Backbone:
C-alpha cells in the first residue's frame, strides 16, 4: 500500500472508529435503551444529536489539523509528491471516513426517530448536508487559520450563521421554500469551501512568523494608569504562572469574545425578529447557549497538551517552583475558566431565559457539568501531545462516564441490585475524581507520553471502578453487621405454643392477647431519628407506653375510627372507649393522655352474643353468634365544628341484610359465610351484584368457595394482589387473588377469585405475616422463615396462572437463630414477633429505598443511602 495512504489511514482511523462506535452503539434495539429506562433513552438522544455530530467535526479536522498541531505539515509539503496528489488522497480518504461514520449515524437515527419513510428521507437529507458542510468547513478553516481550536469554532459557527440568516430572511414563506433555500445555501457554502481549501493547500507556505513584537497602536490622551497597567509584569512566581496560563488559553478568550458577539446578535434577532412558533429557526436561536458548553471541553484539552506541542513543558518542569504548585495552578485555572465560560457567560445572556424558567439550581447543575467536563478534558490533556489529539479521547471518556453513571442509577431498580440507592455516587464521584487528579499529576510530571503510560492509566481506572463497585455494595449491605451477633439472647420462656398468645396490628396500634384473655397494647410509630440516621437507613420503630387494658377475658380488640378502641369479651359483650377522641391539635403530653383515655373501655348495650368485629373505614362491622351481620357507625358523616364527632357511642348498630349464615370477618376485611363463600369490597360495574354496607361501601361475592378455614391471612402486593394464609391443616396456601376481568375492554373491573394453591408441601405452619412485599411464616417448632419473592418491578400485573407459579416457586430461608417465637403480625416494610419470654421484636424485612418512608409526622423522609439494618430491634417486654 502507498505509504501516503497508510499515513492518512493511521491519522483518520482513531476518530473514525470512535465515531462509528458511538453511532453503532445507538443503533441497538430500542428495548435495550429507552423502552424500559428513560435515562438511557436520553443518553441515546445526546449521543445521536450532539456527540455524533461533534465526532464528525473531529474526523474532518483531523485530516489537516493533526498535521498542523504535530508540526508535520511542513514535512508534508516537502515530500517528493505533487501537491495535487496529496490533496486528492486526503479528501478521498476523509470522504470515505465520513461516509462510514455517516452511514452508521443515519442508520441509528432511522431506527429510533424515523416514524415513516418521509421522516427518514428528511432526516437523512439534513444529515448529508451537515456532513458535507463539516467536510468542507474543516478543510478551509484549518488551512486558513492553522489552529485547531479556532478551526473547530469556525467549522461550527459559519454554517450555523448561514442557516440563521437565511431562515430569518425567508421566515414568512412556507416550510418547503425555507428548506429549499437552506439546501441551496449550504450547497453553495460546501462547494465554495472545497474550492477555497484546494486553493489554500496548493499555495500553502511553510514559513511561519519569524519574530517581532505586535503592539497595539498608542492611544493619545490615554491616562497614565492605563499605560502603567499595560506595562506591569508579575514578579511573584504564582502570579507569573497564572499569567502564563492565561496566555496559554488566549485562543479560548478570542473564541469567547466571538461567541459573545454572536450571542448578542442572537438575542437581538430573537427579540426583533418574528418567527413561527416551534419553528426550526426559533429552536436554533433558543439553543445557541449550548455552544458555551463546548468551551470547558477545549479549555481542558489545551492545558497540558498545548505545552507539549509548543515544547515548553520540559522547561516548566525545570522552574524553581514545586511541581504540585504548578499543577494546582494549572488545574485551578482550567476549573475557573470552565465555569466562567460554560456556566457564568451563558447565564449572563440567558438570565431571562432558561435560568428564570428552571430556577437557580439549574445554574449550579450547569456549573457542575462545566467543571466536570473541564476536569476530564484536563486529565486527557495530560496524556496527549496536542490539543486536537485530546478532543476525541476526552469526548469518549465523558460518554463512558455518563453511561456508567446511568447504569449505576438503573442498578438501583434492578431485580437483584448490587445497591439500591444513590450511594455509589457519593462514593464513586469523589474516588474517581481523586484518581483522575492523581493520574493527571503523575502524567503531568512525565516528559513524554507513551503507550505504556496510557495502559497504566487504563488499568488504574479499571481497578478504581471495581473498587467503587465492591465498596458500594459492601457499604450498602452493611458488611460490618456480618461480623457481629445477629440476635441477642432471649430470657426464660413464659409463653408456650400449646396456649399461644395472639398478636395483631391495625395501623400503628398493636394488640397482644394473652392466653388468660388480657390485652397488652402499644402504639408504635416510625418517628424521625435525625437526618443522618434517616439518610443512613437507620429506620427504628419507636415505642410509646405499652400497657395492659383494664380487665381481662377479652376475646378481640380493635382500633375503631378516630382513635377509639372497640372490643368484645368472651361473654359476648361489646365494649368501646368511654369518650371520643378530642378534636383539634394537641402537644405530645396531651396526645399521651388522650391515648390513655382511649384505653378505658365501657360496655355498650346489653347484648351478649357478639363474636366478631373489624374496622372498615369510618365504621365497624360486627357479627353475632346467630350469624347476623351488623354495621356500627355513620352511614355518611361530615365532621365540622357544629357537629363534632360523637364517638361510636352516638350511633346504634344496624343489621345488614337478612342472612343469618355469616361466619365472621378476617384480618383483611373479608366477610366469610358458613357455606364457604367470601365477600370482598371491590369496584364492580353494577352495585346490584353486591351488598351495600353504607353509601360508599359495597361488598361483592368473590368467585369460588374457601378450601377450608383460614387460621392466619395476609395481603401480598408482589404481583397481582393476593391473599396468602395458613389453613387449619397447617398448609401455607394462596387462597384468593385479585384478577382483572375483561382486560382491555371498557367495562373491565377487578374481581377476587378464591383459589386453592398450596405453597410448598409442609403442613406445620402456624401463622403468616407480610411486610407489604415480603412474606414471613411461623412454624410449629417456633422458628421464623422468610420467603424470597421476585421484585415487584420485574413482573408487574400478570395473569393469574403466572402469579400462582411465581409465588409457588418461592423459597424460604430461616430468619434469625432462635426457635422460641410465639406469634407474628404484619407491618409496613417490617413484621413484629413475640418471643416466649414476652419480648417484642421489630424485624425490618425490606429496604425502603424504593419507596420513601412516611413518618407519623406526615413528612416524607429523604431516600436512605444504605440498606436498612435487617437485625431485629428489641422493643420491650410485655411482662415488664
Residues:
Amino acid at each position: 500500500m502507498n505509504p501516503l495512504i497508510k499515513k492518512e489511514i493511521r491519522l483518520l482511523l482513531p476518530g473514525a472508529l470512535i465515531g462509528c462506535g458511538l453511532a453503532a452503539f445507538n443503533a441497538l434495539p430500542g428495548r435495550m435503551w429507552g423502552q424500559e429506562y428513560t435515562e438511557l433513552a436520553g443518553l441515546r438522544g445526546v449521543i445521536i444529536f450532539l456527540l455524533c455530530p461533534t465526532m464528525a467535526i473531529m474526523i474532518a479536522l483531523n485530516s489537516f489539523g493533526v498535521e498542523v498541531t504535530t508540526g508535520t505539515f511542513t514535512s508534508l509539503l516537502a515530500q517528493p509528491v505533487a501537491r495535487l496528489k496529496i490533496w486528492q488522497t486526503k479528501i478521498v480518504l476523509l470522504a470515505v471516513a465520513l461516509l462510514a461514520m455517516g452511514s452508521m449515524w443515519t442508520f441509528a437515527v432511522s431506527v429510533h426517530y424515523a416514524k415513516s419513510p418521509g421522516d427518514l428521507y428528511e432526516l437523512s437529507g439534513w444529515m448529508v448536508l451537515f456532513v458535507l458542510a463539516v467536510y468542507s468547513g474543516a478543510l478551509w478553516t484549518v488551512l486558513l487559520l492553522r489552529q485547531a481550536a479556532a478551526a473547530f469554532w469556525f467549522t461550527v459557527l459559519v454554517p450555523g450563521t448561514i442557516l440563521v440568516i437565511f431562515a430569518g430572511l425567508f421566515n414568512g414563506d412556507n416550510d418547503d421554500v425555507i428548506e429549499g433555500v437552506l439546501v441551496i445555501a449550504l450547497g453553495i457554502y460546501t462547494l465554495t469551501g472545497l474550492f477555497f481549501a484546494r486553493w489554500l493547500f496548493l499555495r500553502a507556505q511553510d514559513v511561519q512568523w519569524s519574530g517581532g513584537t505586535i503592539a497595539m497602536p498608542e492611544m493619545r490622551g490615554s491616562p497614565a494608569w492605563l499605560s502603567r497597567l499595560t506595562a506591569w509584569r508579575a514578579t511573584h512566581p504564582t502570579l507569573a504562572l497564572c499569567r502564563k496560563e492565561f496566555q496559554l488559553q488566549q485562543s479560548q478568550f478570542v473564541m469567547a469574545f466571538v461567541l459573545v458577539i454572536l450571542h448578542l446578535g442572537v438575542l437581538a434577532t430573537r427579540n426583533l425578529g418574528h418567527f413561527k412558533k416551534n419553528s426550526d429557526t426559533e429552536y436554533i436561536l433558543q439553543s445557541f447557549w449550548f455552544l458555551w458548553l463546548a468551551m470547558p471541553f477545549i479549555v481542558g484539552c489545551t492545558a497540558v497538551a498545548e505545552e507539549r506541542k509548543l515544547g515548553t513543558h520540559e522547561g516548566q518542569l525545570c522552574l524553581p517552583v514545586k511541581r504540585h504548585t504548578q499543577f494546582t495552578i494549572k488545574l485551578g485555572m482550567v476549573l475557573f475558566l470552565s465555569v466562567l465560560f460554560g456556566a457564568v457567560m451563558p447565564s449572563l445572556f440567558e438570565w431571562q431565559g432558561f435560568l428564570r424558567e428552571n430556577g437557580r439550581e439549574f445554574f449550579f447543575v450547569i456549573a457542575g457539568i462545566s467543571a466536570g467536563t473541564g476536569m476530564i478534558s484536563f486529565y486527557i490533556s495530560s496524556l496527549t501531545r496536542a490539543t486536537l489529539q485530546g478532543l476525541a479521547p476526552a469526548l469518549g471518556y465523558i460518554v463512558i462516564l455518563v453511561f456508567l453513571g446511568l447504569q449505576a442509577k438503573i442498578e438501583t431498580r434492578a431485580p437483584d441490585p448490587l445497591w439500591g440507592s444513590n450511594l455509589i455516587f457519593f462514593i464513586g464521584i469523589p474516588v474517581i475524581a481523586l484518581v483522575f487528579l492523581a493520574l493527571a499529576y503523575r502524567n503531568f510530571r512525565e516528559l513524554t507520553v507513551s503507550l505504556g503510560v496510557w495502559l497504566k492509566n487504563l488499568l488504574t481506572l479499571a481497578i478504581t471502578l471495581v473498587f467503587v463497585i465492591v465498596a458500594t455494595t459492601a457499604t450498602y449491605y452493611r458488611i460490618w453487621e456480618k461480623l457481629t451477633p445477629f440476635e441477642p439472647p432471649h430470657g426464660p420462656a413464659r409463653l408456650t405454643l400449646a396456649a399461644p398468645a395472639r398478636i395483631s396490628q391495625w395501623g400503628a396500634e398493636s394488640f397482644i392477647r394473652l392466653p388468660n384473655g388480657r390485652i397488652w397494647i402499644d402504639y408504635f410509630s416510625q418517628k424521625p431519628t435525625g437526618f443522618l440516621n434517616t439518610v443512613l437507613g437507620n429506620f427504628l420503630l419507636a415505642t410509646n407506653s405499652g400497657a395492659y387494658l383494664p380487665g381481662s377475658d377479652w376475646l378481640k380488640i380493635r382500633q375503631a375510627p378516630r382513635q377509639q378502641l372497640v372490643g368484645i369479651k368472651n361473654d359476648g359483650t361489646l365494649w368501646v372507649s368511654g369518650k371520643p377522641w378530642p378534636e383539634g391539635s394537641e402537644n405530645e403530653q396531651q396526645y399521651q393522655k388522650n391515648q390513655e383515655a382511649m384505653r378505658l373501655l365501657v360496655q355498650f348495650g346489653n347484648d351478649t352474643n357478639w363474636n366478631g368485629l373489624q374496622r372498615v373505614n369510618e365504621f365497624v362491622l360486627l357479627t353475632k353468634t346467630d350469624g347476623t351481620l351488623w354495621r356500627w357507625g355513620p352511614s355518611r358523616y361530615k365532621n365540622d365544628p357544629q357537629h363534632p364527632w360523637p364517638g361510636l357511642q352516638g350511633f346504634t348498630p344496624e343489621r345488614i341484610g337478612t342472612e343469618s349464615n355469616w361466619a365472621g370477618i378476617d384480618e383483611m376485611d373479608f366477610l366469610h359465610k358458613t357455606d364457604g363463600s367470601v365477600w370482598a369490597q371491590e369496584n364492580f360495574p353494577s352495585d346490584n351484584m353486591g351488598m351495600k354496607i353504607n353509601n360508599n361501601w359495597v361488598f361483592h361475592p368473590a368467585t369460588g368457595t374457601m378450601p377450608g378455614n383460614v387460621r392466619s391471612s395476609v395481603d401480598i402486593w408482589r404481583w397481582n394482589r393476593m391473599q396468602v394464609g395458613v389453613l387449619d391443616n397447617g398448609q401455607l396456601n394462596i387462597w384468593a387473588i385479585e384478577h382483572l376481568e375483561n382486560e382491555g375492554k371498557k367495562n373491565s373491573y377487578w374481581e377476587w377469585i378464591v383459589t386453592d394453591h398450596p405453597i410448598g408441601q409442609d403442613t406445620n405452619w402456624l401463622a403468616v405475616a407480610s411486610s407489604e412485599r415480603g412474606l414471613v411464616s411461623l412454624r410449629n417448632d417456633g422458628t421464623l422463615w422468610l420467603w424470597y419473592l421476585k421484585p415487584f418491578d420485574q413482573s408487574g400485573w400478570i395473569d393469574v396462572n403466572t402469579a400462582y407459579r411465581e409465588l409457588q416457586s418461592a423459597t424460604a430461608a430461616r430468619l434469625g437463630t432462635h426457635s422460641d417465637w410465639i406469634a407474628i403480625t404484619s407491618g409496613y416494610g417490617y413484621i413484629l414477633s413475640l418471643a416466649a419470654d414476652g419480648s417484642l421484636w421489630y424485624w425490618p424485612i425490606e429496604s425502603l429505598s424504593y419507596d420513601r418512608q412516611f413518618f407519623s409526622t406526615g413528612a416524607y423522609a429523604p431516600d436512605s443511602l444504605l440498606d436498612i439494618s435487617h437485625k431485629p430491634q428489641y422493643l420491650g417486654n410485655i411482662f415488664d
The first strand starts at residue 502 and ends at 506. The chain is about 45% helix and 20% strand.
